[in-house]
Specification:
With 338 residues, the protein is of the alpha/beta class. The protein has 13 helices and twelve strands. The strands form three sheets. An eight-stranded parallel barrel has the order 3-4-5-6-7-8-9-12, surrounded by six helices. The chain has a two-stranded antiparallel ribbon with strand order 1-2. It has a two-stranded antiparallel ribbon with strand order 10-11.
């Protein structure tokens, strides 16, 4: 992958307007929604920097209506840093559109004593006043105790007049936005273990849950998403990731044995699959360019998948992981390209 130079002197387009002027077609898959029990309005498509998207195309995504951005300062930072120029413009001190953006950041260092270092890195690099959702990242089966220790910091991290707010103010100066919002507005965790995600789904210390979910890995929908009441205003916000990738390879690659002419889903179809599930608020994407942004948005505008399409994609995912062979699937269950 070619790495684009994003030094501070590089000229980028200026943000003047926001998605409030954009009218998305009405469908059963609304483009904007409330993120669980938070007060955040989010686009159903989120944009992370793991795909190496440029700042120019990050601003393009914002101009097209995407307002949820995910940034890592300590894992694959060489990729995420390519979007940092855009995030400085959208979220930095003095931005005229800051309240229209939902900035989610993450640290993968699950150590309460090191959280201040992660915050300092993010505030220094992005020049921000506050973070909307601060995630503890990559929480696996062996991280239960570490996560519990980290989440005990939630009252010190969240909201105005917190312990960490006063520290950040001393380092970067006081601003009206920082005084109002605090250093972090909400706390999230990115889970690779569904049992832990379920355990913490009702905790007041955790506002947003992020889980892996795709057609080949459906544990999250079976054990967590389907157990939530989508209308419950007190449920946590739900973000999915890895919608188009699996241990078995890229999900857009044809699984072994799939008959010629069968529906071969595209990456936007995989986003729709996650967003069709119960209680999913945001599908986090790793889009790499503006053409992929346009395709993802166009996919969402088609609305939710039908029951037949979901059932077909379940079979498609099982074929991809080798759980099924094509001879185990009835011809009536297959869908063909339209």
């Amino acid at each position: 992958m070619q790495i684009t130079d994003l030094s501070p002197q590089k000229t980028m387009p200026q943000v003047e307007n926001f998605h409030s002027t954009i009218k998305f077609p009405e469908s059963d898959l609304p483009f904007y929604r409330k993120l669980g029990r938070t007060n955040l309005e989010v686009s159903c498509l989120g944009l992370g920097g793991g795909g190496g998207i440029s700042s120019e195309d990050t601003l393009y995504a914002f101009d097209k209506g995407i307002n949820y951005f995910f940034f890592s300062s300590d894992l694959h930072h060489y990729l995420y840093s390519l979007m940092s120029g855009a995030l400085r413009q959208l979220c930095g001190r003095g931005s005229s559109v800051r309240e229209k953006v939902v900035l989610a950041t993450v640290t993968y260092i699950k150590n309460p004593e090191m959280v201040l270092g992660a915050l300092l890195d993010q505030f220094a690099e992005l020049g921000i006043d506050y973070i909307d959702v601060f995630f503890w990242g990559w929480v696996g089966a062996k991280d239960g105790t570490a996560l519990e220790e980290c989440l005990q910091l939630s009252p010190d991290l969240k909201g105005s007049n917190s312990v960490y707010q006063r520290t950040i103010e001393r380092m970067f100066g006081i601003s009206e936005r920082l005084k109002k919002m605090g250093v972090v507005r909400y706390i999230g965790a990115s889970f690779h273990d569904i049992n832990l995600a379920k355990q913490w789904s009702n905790s007041p210390l955790l506002d947003v849950i992020m889980v892996r979910h795709n057609v080949a890995h459906r544990t999250a929908q079976n054990q967590l998403l389907n157990q939530l009441n989508q209308e419950d205003t007190k449920r946590p916000g739900i973000v999915t990731f890895k919608s188009s990738g699996s241990h078995s390879g890229a999900l857009w690659d044809t699984p072994i044995g799939l008959p010629h002419g069968c529906w071969q889903p595209s990456v936007p179809d995989f986003y729709r699959y996650s967003l069709t599930q119960n209680s999913v608020d945001v599908c986090l994407t790793g889009l790499q360019c503006r053409e992929e942004i346009d395709a993802a948005i166009a996919g969402v505008q088609k609305g939710k998948l039908t029951k037949a399409e979901i059932e077909y994609l379940n079979l498609y995912g099982d074929l991809h992981r080798g759980r099924l062979k094509i001879e185990d699937i009835s011809a009536q269950s297959l869908l063909y390209s339209r």
